[in-house]
Amino acid sequence: MKNPIDYEVLYENAACGMITFQPDGRIVYANHTLLNWTGYDETAIKTKKFPELLHKGGNLYYHLFILPLLQMHSAVNEINLEIRTPSGSLPVLFSAVTGELREVEGKVINGIIFKIAERKKFEAELLNEKNKAKGEHENQSLVLREVAYNQSHLVRAPLASILGLISLLEENDEVNPDNKAIIKMLNISASNLDKVITNIITLSAKGQGGL
């Protein structure tokens, strides 16, 4: 007999931020992961609108591009944003689908937020290494491959856990249609990221003669 899945614990402590808000931006739910990132508690974040969590020009970008796309296509995928945090800002990938909740009248927007701060840092490190090694192409390539290989493995460990969890959820017949849509979207985003990381590891291993 399979052990029952505690969906509340899964939702609240997921490796990604999860948020549900109304089309006017009013926040209905946010999981503990996102609360930790933003520094809000559950009561405080419900007094905010989703665009208010965004840093700098993200608020304007949301109203000009993201919201119209959600209204036209009922979904958006892997949009680069920055959310406000107690220490500044956090680069993220935002995906969302529209749906319905019994507790809320009308449509709601269910969003998933992946933290990509380490990837941004890694990209900056790559650029810095490239600028410092213009005249040393061979040595530069070796360093970059080593960094890519090591960083990709660090990212792949938690990503494998996420993909395994998604697989368990997809096999569970008790998941309602709205949650299935969120799980499917999460699976697409995580699988795409896994493919990119796999390619990086493969190319790095070839460059190093099979690390």
The whole-angstrom Rg is 19 Å
Name the average pLDDT. Answer: 79
- Could you say which structural class the secondary elements and strand pairing correspond to? alpha+beta
For the biggest sheet, the summary is: 5 strands, antiparallel
In whole angstroms, the N-to-C terminal distance is 41 Å
Number of helical regions: 7
Describe this structure in words.
With 211 residues, the chain is an alpha+beta fold. It has 2 domains: 1-115, Beta-Lactamase; 117-211, Methane Monooxygenase Hydroxylase, Chain G, domain 1, CATH 1.20.58. Helix content is 54%, strand content 22%. The chain contains 7 helices and 5 strands. It has helices at 7-12, 32-38, 42-45, 58-73, 117-132, 137-170, 177-207, and strands at residues 17-21, 27-30, 75-85, 88-101, 104-115. It has a 5-stranded antiparallel beta sheet with strand order 2-1-5-4-3, sandwiched between helices. Helix 6 (137-170) packs antiparallel against helix 7 (177-207). The termini are far apart. The model has no long low-confidence stretch (mean pLDDT 79). Its EC number is 2.7.13.3. It catalyses: ATP + protein L-histidine = ADP + protein N-phospho-L-histidine. It comes from Mucilaginibacter polytrichastri. One of its GO terms (molecular function) is phosphorelay sensor kinase activity. It holds the Pfam family PAS_9.
